């Protein structure tokens, strides 16, 4: 299911996205009309729209587009909001942008087991932006899976751990402190919610030596919540660590925000204005 600016989408509407692959997005899980971290998702879209298009995006209009697509849907739904310009000119991408909101929806997946990941060198382009250019990430995810792992964990040119393919990684040290990598990463919504809901977090450069001293590791994003990491290359972690369990419980305890908000303006094609 999909809609563009609150209306049914057709092939012509999304052709530019398929051919130019320029835009940004966020993915949220809607549970019975509510979203954990909704305000953070909307803030991300507004900030990334300024960066990617130099335009201001109305967060209440985005909320309305999501609400129209979800409708009376019940249960857990994975909703992706992609912001792109259907009229983008590949030869002149600097022209004034008219970003639009594409909302796609599917049933959310269930719980999955601990991850076994492989470290590979990679730095995402514009790592602070959740953009749609996923080729590099997926190429290395494919390589890791072909090598027998579940997913890939990126390291920089300096060898420091940064982030997973589509998730943040955190560690638990011998004292039970949560350690997040100090690196250029996408500031994930789940990561930010955990940092607010659970105490005892620090940020530090994660070298190979530091990684090998950790007792547990975990991955976070909206789709998986908090998922244990069983191993990184040949380094094995415990998957029943009480701190990871506490993080999972803290995340589950974050109150979801209702999609229902103030009435949005009437449907319009142009959702943003030039800054």
Description of the molecule:
With 275 residues, this protein is of the alpha+beta class. The chain has two domains: 2-110 and 256-274, 2-Layer Sandwich (D-amino Acid Aminotransferase, Chain A, domain 1), CATH 3.30.470; 115-252, D-amino Acid Aminotransferase, subunit A, domain 2 (D-amino Acid Aminotransferase, Chain A, domain 2, Alpha-Beta Barrel), CATH 3.20.10. Helices cover 28% and strands 31% of the residues. The protein contains seven helices and 18 strands. Strands 8, 9, 10, 11, 12, 13, 14, 15 and 16 form a nine-stranded mixed beta sheet that branches. Strands 2-1-7-6-3-4-17 form a seven-stranded antiparallel beta sheet. Strand 11 (168-172) and strand 12 form a beta hairpin. Helix 2 (38-53) packs across helix 3 (59-70). The longest helix is centred in the N-terminal third of the chain and has 16 residues, at 38-53. The two termini are 32 Å apart. Mean pLDDT is 92; it is low at 263-275.
Q: Quick one: CATH superfamily of the largest domain? A: D-amino Acid Aminotransferase, subunit A, domain 2
Average pLDDT works out at: 92
Residues in β-strands, percent: 25-35%
Total strand count, please? 18
- The third-level CATH topology of the largest domain is D-amino Acid Aminotransferase, Chain A, domain 2
The tally of domains stands at: 2
Write down the Rg: 19 Å
The largest sheet is: 9 strands, mixed
CATH architecture of the largest domain: Alpha-Beta Barrel
Low-pLDDT sequence parts: 263-275
Shape: globular
């Amino acid at each position: 299911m999909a809609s563009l600016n609150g209306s049914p989408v057709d092939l012509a509407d999304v052709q530019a996205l398929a051919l130019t692959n320029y835009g940004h997005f966020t993915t949220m899980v809607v549970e019975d009309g509510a979203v954990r971290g909704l305000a953070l998702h909307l803030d991300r879209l507004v900030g990334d729209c300024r960066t990617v298009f130099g335009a201001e995006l109305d967060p209440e209009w985005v909320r309305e587009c999501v609400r129209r697509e979800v409708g009376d849907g019940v249960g857990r739904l994975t909703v992706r909001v992609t912001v792109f310009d259907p009229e983008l000119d590949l030869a002149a991408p600097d022209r004034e942008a008219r970003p639009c909101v594409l909302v796609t929806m599917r049933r959310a997946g269930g719980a999955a087991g601990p991850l076994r990941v492989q470290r590979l060198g990679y730095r995402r382009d514009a790592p602070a932006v959740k953009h749609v250019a996923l080729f590099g990430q997926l190429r290395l995810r494919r390589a890791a899976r072909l090598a027998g792992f579940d997913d890939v964990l990126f390291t920089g040119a300096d060898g420091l751990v940064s982030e997973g393919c589509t998730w943040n990684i955190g560690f638990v040290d011998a004292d039970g402190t949560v350690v997040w990598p100090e690196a250029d990463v996408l500031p994930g919504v789940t990561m930010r919610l955990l940092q607010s809901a659970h105490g005892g977090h620090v940020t530090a450069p994660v070298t190979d030596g530091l990684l090998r001293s950790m007792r547990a590791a975990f991955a976070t994003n909206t789709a998986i919540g908090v998922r244990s990491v069983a191993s990184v290359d040949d380094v094995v972690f415990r998957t029943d660590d009480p701190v990871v369990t506490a993080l999972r419980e803290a995340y589950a305890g974050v109150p979801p925000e209702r999609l229902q908000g103030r009435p949005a303006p009437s449907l319009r094609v142009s959702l943003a204005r030039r800054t």
